[in-house]
Amino acid sequence: MSRAFDQLKPHLKRAMALNTALVLFEWDDATQAPEQAGALTGDVIGILSGEYFQAVNNEEVARLAEACSQETDLTESEAAQVKELLREIEKLSKIPQEEYQAFAKLVSESTRVWEAAKKANDFSKFAPVLKQVIDWQKKFAGYRAKPGQKKYDVMLEDYEPGFSMEKLDEFFAMVRREIAPLFRQVMESGVEIEDGFLSGDFDDETQEKIGRFIAEYVGFDFQKGVMAVSAHPFTTNLHNKDVRITTHYTDRLDSSLFSIIHETGHALYEFGIRDDLTQTMAGQGASMGMHESQSRFFENIVGRSAGFWKPVYGKLQEAFPENLGQVSLEEFVRAVNKASAGLIRTEADELSYSLHVLVRYELEKELIEGDLQVENLPEAWADKYEEYLGIRPENVREGVLQDIHWSQGSFGYFPSYALGSAFSAQLYYHMKKEMDFEELLEEGKLSVIREYLREHVHQYGKIKDSRQILKDTTGEDFKPEYYVRYLKEKYQKLYQLPQ
Amino acid sequence: MSRAFDQLKPHLKRAMALNTALVLFEWDDATQAPEQAGALTGDVIGILSGEYFQAVNNEEVARLAEACSQETDLTESEAAQVKELLREIEKLSKIPQEEYQAFAKLVSESTRVWEAAKKANDFSKFAPVLKQVIDWQKKFAGYRAKPGQKKYDVMLEDYEPGFSMEKLDEFFAMVRREIAPLFRQVMESGVEIEDGFLSGDFDDETQEKIGRFIAEYVGFDFQKGVMAVSAHPFTTNLHNKDVRITTHYTDRLDSSLFSIIHETGHALYEFGIRDDLTQTMAGQGASMGMHESQSRFFENIVGRSAGFWKPVYGKLQEAFPENLGQVSLEEFVRAVNKASAGLIRTEADELSYSLHVLVRYELEKELIEGDLQVENLPEAWADKYEEYLGIRPENVREGVLQDIHWSQGSFGYFPSYALGSAFSAQLYYHMKKEMDFEELLEEGKLSVIREYLREHVHQYGKIKDSRQILKDTTGEDFKPEYYVRYLKEKYQKLYQLPQ
Predict the structure, then answer these.
(1) Of the candidates B16, B35, B223, which has its C-beta nearest A34's C-beta?
(2) Most exposed among A254, A412, B42, B181, judged by the fewest C-beta atoms under 10 Å?
């Protein structure tokens, strides 16, 4: 008698193939598809998505998945795949297919509406459709909630298993209590960091050339990867031998440089997934937050350090002699760490970033669990920015309409950005005990750092969740104190604050 | 009661979506996929191909297709779709699936073997697998042959419906009788055309810039299309709003320029397919030959004429002042029409091109229908090159191993290249009666020419076959005399031969 998993395998492979095709269409759309292709290619994507839905969500697969969960001889990889499949089935099967499709349609509509509203700087255009999106998502969360489970917790669980409101409230309380005052201190310190030389007319070709060099230096493998240009930088992958990042070239040199290092961090995760996991449902990162921890680890902890730039800053100066020729390594590193009170999350520095997320977390909670009305969002948004960042958006384009996430129905996503930073800090303090981190950076031995993360984080895919990874690697459950400590040590020094 | 076609539609849409995904994977592989992605992405492609096979080749679809062929209220587009579906079913259903898959596997193997053999310049490495490929293809043709139908005719019909050996023998007899002697006359004319200025160190960026300009000038719509780089130039499309061409940049300026014009000719065909045909099985060009007629029409008849370059040659000179600054329009046009006895088909000039195809047609016939043994191919190849082109390959790399086609099992494909040229000449002489062709070129009014072809050729997709298109457009069945006349008029003048 054949094992249930062996019978399940062709179904999983079919789902994987369809999913890979969808990933490629998404990549293509963001990087090169012609402007007018959208509608017709959309039909294709719609059909393939439907095929994927049916490949995963049918009676035979459900029966086999159930049977597999009873099997005792599954490999680690197989068990993880079954777990992910059951999670997916749970999610899909509780939502009637008509409602799921109606929602998918609404979302593609609402994203367009959001774009137009942002362009017109007019929240009232977006409000009605956002209200519908929220109503649907609350309805879906209601279908899926376990007895007694809150709706927002259902949403959070999709992005970061193991992190409910209870845990996040604790985390964000610490952000509010420790980081918001630190940020105020920094703003009031009177220290002015010069970063004018980061702005200028940097030609795209040279930016790309040095960008590729830096990506490779950090560990991007161009034999197994592609780098391209898109409006918003992102990372995707077909499998662990085909990982793709994008960047964009602007008049801020640090914008492309650090987006490349950030995406390379994501890419290293995907390159590092084990061969028996890639191309399976368990072959992605453990969670959004753990993925983000790797990108932020390389972007901020590694990439914004003096040690990192020591071996390669000369190369950057050579690429842009007019802009950086007279700028010392120390001045450059200070500039790329400058904190400022900005309105836009994606342009925020490392210190204020978590405050941007704090605003969103508190608003999402109130929208889903509290009684904040959509109409009152712009005001609530502005109030919180004023409270935490000391700055008030003068228009909704730079306020509540800046992010795409809500228009796509992604509630519960934002917290994982801040969690990622916190995870990376916890990993960092542990790694410093295991290796001479600073020396490795200064000697350009990034492979030791990469290897460590591959061994402890990347290889496992979804075999472990983020808390398990932290426990197994650092010996401790998630501990946000490391994040606070990291930011304090770094910014107190940079801004000459009393310690 | 719903029409059979309406029941068939979801099946056709599914097949179309899977096929579009396969097209995108192919594009991606040729233009940007990382080197090491091949094996894992190959799994995905294998699964999606299997899905496509099953989407088209199953009992319900066969039953519905049969029912549709009895329906009387089909639109023109629907009828064409049913015809193509029945053709596809006929092809797939007669070949046992295990054999089809075994052959697909052999072909992916044999392409690699061919590549290695070509690199090693060693035919004996390729011969055994080529023999297997031929045996399979003969077997498949045997399964599919109608009573009394020859195997090579089955193969030819796949690429050019309506053109059997009987018709092609006639055509190639004329090539041998008229063009081979003309080519000899040209070679012996003593006229030396200077084309040294076409070789040089042309930087890729400038080549790309002028290439995009020329593509757009010919009619490529970048709102609905993409241009990229690949080892061998090609055209593909997802649908009529997403058409993609590639080129390559070498040290021959004419190489990228005319490959871009050639591929733009293919692209115009795809842009011109009617909206009710695109994304259906009848939504591609009528045939390989008719497709090639459009690329060659723009590359040769339009693109290598003095009239075409008159409005834009100055732009080309500006792009490469050092190379072309002192070269007159007349000298440039003479150079890009220079005939020479070369060994490589893809580098052949317009005149000798048909002789390269003649060699391959005669050899294929002997391999499939005659008693030519694979072991004797290199010798037979060399003999024919000596006979028709007066030049003998000194190694197999530049001889029988130069083309990928046979390794892929594509027998019957080559003739369509020469047919394409012949179709384009027939269309050309007819169009000259309907419009002042020369004046349109000189005034840069290419849209009139494009529109004519869109109206008479492109829009129909597979509604008409190539002979029907020629009849409806020119009032005559295929007449190869126009091709001979075109080459005679052009080359007798260029090489100052007695007329």
Answers:
(1) B223
(2) B181
Residues of A in contact with B14 (CB under 8 A): 47, 51
Nearest chain A Cα distance for residue B100, angstroms: 20
- Predicted confidence at residue B97, as pLDDT, reads 81
A224 and chain B in contact, CB less than 8 A? yes
- Predicted model pTM: 0.93
Facing B34 at nearest CB: one of A34, A224, A278 = A224
Are B423 and B289 a contacting pair, CB within 8 Å? Answer: yes
Chain B's closest residue to A50, CA to CA, is B14
Question: Does the model's ipTM exceed the 0.85 cut?
Answer: yes
Domain ranges across chain A? 3-144, 165-494
- Chain A positions touching B17 (Cβ under 8 A) are 43-44, 47-48, 51
CB contact under 8 A, B47 and A21: no
Q: Is A221 left (phi over 0), alpha (psi -120 to 50) or beta?
A: beta
Q: Give the CATH architecture of domain B165-494.
A: Orthogonal Bundle (1.10)
Nearest residue on chain A to B43, alpha-carbon basis? A17
Q: Which two tokens stand for residue A9?
A: 């395998």
Kindly report, residue by residue over A213-252, the tens digit of the pLDDT. 999 999 999 999 999 999 899 999 999 999 999 999 999 9
DSSP B220: -
- Alpha-carbon distance of A300 to A282, in angstroms, equals 28
Q: In what order do the strands lie in the sheet with B242-247?
A: B225-229, B242-247, B235-239
For residues A260 and A248, give the distance between their C-alpha atoms in angstroms, rounded to a whole number: 9
**Which residue, among A9, A13, A20, would best test binding to B if mutated, counting the most B CBs under 10 Å from its CB?**
A20
Of A263, A299, A362, A364, the catalytic one is A263
Report d(CA B185, CA B494) in Å as an integer. Answer: 12
Question: Nearest 10 degrees: CA dihedral of A455, A461, A467, A472?
Answer: -30
- Best CA proximity match to A287, nearest among A430, A412, A450: A412
CB-nearest to A24 from B28, B239, B242 is B28
B216–A contact, CB cutoff 8 A: no
Q: What SS3 class is residue B224?
A: coil
**CA A91 from centroid of its chain's CA atoms:** 21
Mean pLDDT, chain B, integer? 96
